[in-house]
Amino acid sequence: MYGKYILKGVHPEGWMKRQLEIQANGLPGNLFKVWRDIKNSNWIGGDFDDWERFPYFLDGYIPLAYLSDNDDMKKRATHYVEKVMAGQWGDGWITPQSPEKRGGYDSWPVFLITKALVTYYEFTGIEAVLKSVLSAYKSYYEHLKERKIVLRDWSKARWFEAFVSLNVLYDKYKEPWIKDLGKILAENGTKWNEQTGKWTRPLNKWTYETHNVNIFMMLKCEPMAEYLLGGDYAFDPETMWRTLYKYNGTAAGIITGDECLSGLGASRGTELCGVAEFMYSAEKLYEYTGAPQWLDRLEKAAFNAFPATCSDDMWTHQYNQSSNQPYCVKFPGKSYFRTNGSEEQIFGLEPGYGCCTANMGQAWPKLAMSEFLRTEDGIDISILLPSVLSTQIDGRDVEIEVNSDYPFRQSASVNIRTKEKVDFDLTINVPSWAENVRVNGVSMNSKRITLDNSWDGEKTFEIEFDLSPELTDRPFGMKALNYGPFVFSLPIKSKWVMEEYEKGGVVRKYPYCDYEVYPLEEYNYAFASDKFDVKVNGSGDVPFSQSSPPVEIKTEMVKINWEPEDGYETVPSINPKDRTVISAPETKTLIPYGCAKLRMTEMPFAEEPEEQ
User: Fold this and answer.
1) Which of 257, 438, 519, 559 has minimal Cβ neighbours within 10 Å of its Cβ?
2) Across the chain, what does the average pLDDT equal?
3) How many helices (H) and strands (E) does the chain have?
4) Percent of the chain with pLDDT strictly greater than 90
5) Residue 142: CB partners within 8 Å, gap ≥ 6?
6) For residue 279, what is the DSSP state?
């Protein structure tokens, strides 16, 4: 393991703190009030949902409560943890199923609820919670060994998720059966290294092996399993990611999956759960390997794909997002998505399935959790997010403050304070797209900054770097505009049409109602210039706001004839056939992808009409 993320003593500041406050005041912080699957969950004595929704919710709510330092939320998180533990069966079994019903139960939620409980333990240090997880897995081990249960469906596909908890348990207790359980899971779970041939050609067919969330989760499989079991499991995440991205990649740095892999079209969708899980996998891959490319990928997903799929107030979300989405409305006939229904692109409480409603809460808190790592030689700052770390090294108090508006501005002040002399290395990761990196005005040749290893009193380091706008090639002769971690989109002015109703006993009511989003202007634009004028505004009260974007780029664009996909009125064709200029050049303002809910991201360079 390269390092271990530090959770205690982390205090997000600046835009990161504001984003967490938006989440706490939005749907993820209030699901227990408005959604019966949480409010009346079987996990806490109710009669709805005995499967994944409450564990997903708790997995995001716990870190949100502690990183926000919100006493009411921390009390509620503790109450829920205690309710889950109180519901644990005498033999340690942790899900709500009675013994006679366990044999037919898909036990994937065991991995998920224990993951949430381990996070609670890591924030609080309450060992009784970890003992509860130990008891749960001992029972799970006995059930598997005696064939009272088997890995099936989701638990078979997601077997490696158990290692989030098993690695912590083995580090703490060193009990041999923990490794034995890991071996059983690895032997009976999906062999993901044998599935890559299914990823090169999308099918209009649902399978576990091409399901986008399973795949996003799977990426962290190898290093997490090897940490406990050793050996070579051949689940090479880098090779797998390159294959996935080659055949399914999007301009926003993720892969398509609506719900299963959907190819390279910019109008194809990606599930919100998948984005949240990709962020978590990238965080774990850096924690376990130290490979910086996973931080680059994490930043691109976190600063583009995730905010794009949530409304500014985080009270509503999409199930599927697309790089090019000039409409977010229900398809009136056959769904355009390969393996999803017709409403998955609207914003709402529960468009599509409720997994994303429950799981959207983990993304921002876990990004904030991933800033500081304890390494063998000291502390590593993985992303220059605004935050303060208060910790101890060799029993001595250390405080590290990162004062920044990154990624919106390319600078940070890193202040290290100690009351007495203490030796440790401080390393800082600088993303691959940074140019002309400077520390206290001195140029650096490396993207990995290592600062003094002896600290006494207070020291401050000013870190700066530059970025350049760049048009990158996309499939079908399209282009995407990048600026550091950001992908830029042409925003489309929109009208949000609210719908309040009740369906299946679930109420949609403002602010957690549904919205169809219609364009108020045309989408058929192409790039007409490779000159770009960047204006940095910095983060505001809403960091990823469409009305007040943190960064803007002006460039010349023109209209082209861009027809819709055959059979659809609201989906632009993947490959516009006619790229001939049909209008005078206009100066258009592009904004970060994550700010634009209606947008065009992959656009061609216009072609001048042939002279007659």
Assistant:
1) 438
2) 96
3) 18, 26
4) 95
5) 91, 148
6) H
